[in-house]
């Protein structure tokens, strides 16, 4: 057996993200090697001609500064389709209008509740920076949209809200703004599961003909997938957004390039913890797909990996 020898990482003055990632390639270091392989796959996927690129991620990271990494990927048009959860809309919009704050995992949650502060990990989100501001801003927009038509797909709603951020002071920090600006479709299969969805429901109370057309979203997704010669995905976390990406891609014989970043385990049979190899058995990934599952926190890994990717591109 002749294999590459494990080399020590050489840390040097002036190293950038890409130089460090290339060192990880040769270090043989457990998850570190996977991180390096993941950047290689992303680079290949981005440069692949006729490849439709999917980006899937959970809402929680959008409450952190990692939102800026997602925004930059979309600003640079490196992905063609976004599938995410309703909470992404919640946090992305709320942070245009209000600030979130540094907190602590070990804070007294009973005391926070008394103070009207919601804790998301070590992020503090006061009520006035979340539910209250979303209701204040969303209801007039929904009333405006209702006058145009009564039936909306989630993609259409996302773009309409993104368009209305153009003149906001922090509008260009928004994920939604750049998906509208660059005409990148965003699909939210679980649209009612979050503050954005609750505002839709509240508007529906007095406008019973106001409806969300989820099957229009599915039709658009099917058109994208069936027309794709090749497809690839960066899938962060799990849940409905992860599954929606791989579910639809089974109809084109599976994804060609895939990078998972997850903290979930596979031994309990969860979709969130399922490795790329399991998806191959379902035909959601091609048998010969470039793929890697990277175990770790996306708020650490994503800035490092995407920083390296930008330097290569």
How would you concisely characterize the structure shown here?
47% of the residues lie in helices and 17% in strands. With 313 residues, the chain is α/β, with parallel strands linked by helices. It has one domain: Deoxyhypusine Synthase.
Can you offer a commentary on this structure?
The protein is an alpha/beta fold and 313 residues long. Helices cover 47% and strands 17% of the residues. It has helices spanning 17-27, 30-47, 67-75, 86-97, 109-114, 131-148, 154-163, 175-181, 195-204, 214-227, 239-249, 276-282, 298-312, and strands spanning 51-57, 81-84, 101-102, 117-120, 123-126, 151-152, 186-187, 211-212, 230-236, 255-262, 285-295. The strands form three sheets. The chain has a six-stranded parallel β-sheet, with helices on both faces. Helix 1 packs across helix 13 (298-312), helix 2 packs across helix 13 and helix 7 (154-163) crosses helix 8 (175-181). The longest helix has 18 residues, at 30-47. The model has no long low-confidence stretch (mean pLDDT 97).
């Amino acid at each position: 057996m002749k294999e590459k020898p494990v080399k020590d990482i050489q840390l040097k003055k002036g190293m950038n993200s890409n130089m460090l990632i290339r060192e990880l390639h040769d270090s043989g270091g457990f998850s570190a090697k996977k991180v390096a392989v993941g950047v290689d796959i992303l680079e290949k996927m981005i440069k692949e001609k006729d490849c439709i690129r999917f980006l899937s991620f959970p809402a929680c990271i959008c409450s952190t500064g990692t939102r800026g990494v997602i925004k930059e990927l979309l600003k640079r048009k490196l992905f063609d389709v976004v599938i995410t959860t309703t909470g992404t809309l919640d946090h992305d919009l709320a942070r245009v209008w209000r600030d979130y704050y540094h907190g602590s995992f070990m804070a007294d949650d009973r005391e926070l509740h008394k103070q009207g502060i919601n804790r998301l990990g070590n992020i503090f989100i006061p009520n006035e920076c979340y539910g209250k501001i979303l209701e204040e801003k969303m209801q007039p927009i929904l009333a405006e949209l209702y006058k145009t038509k009564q039936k909306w797909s989630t993609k259409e709603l996302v773009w309409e809200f993104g368009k209305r951020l153009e003149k906001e002071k922090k509008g260009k920090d928004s994920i939604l703004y750049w998906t509208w600006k660059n005409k990148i479709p965003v699909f939210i299969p679980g649209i009612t599961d979050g503050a954005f969805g609750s505002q839709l429901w509240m508007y529906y109370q007095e406008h019973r003909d106001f409806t969300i057309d989820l099957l229009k979203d599915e039709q658009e997704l099917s058109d994208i997938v069936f027309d794709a010669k090749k497809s690839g995905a960066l899938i962060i976390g799990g849940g409905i957004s992860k599954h929606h990406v791989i579910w639809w891609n089974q109809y084109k014989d599976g994804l060609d390039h895939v990078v998972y970043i997850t903290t979930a385990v596979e031994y309990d049979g969860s979709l969130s913890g399922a490795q790329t190899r399991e998806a191959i058995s379902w035909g959601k990934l091609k048998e010969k797909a470039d793929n890697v599952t990277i175990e770790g926190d996306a708020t650490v890994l994503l800035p490092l990996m995407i920083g390296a990717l930008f330097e290569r591109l």
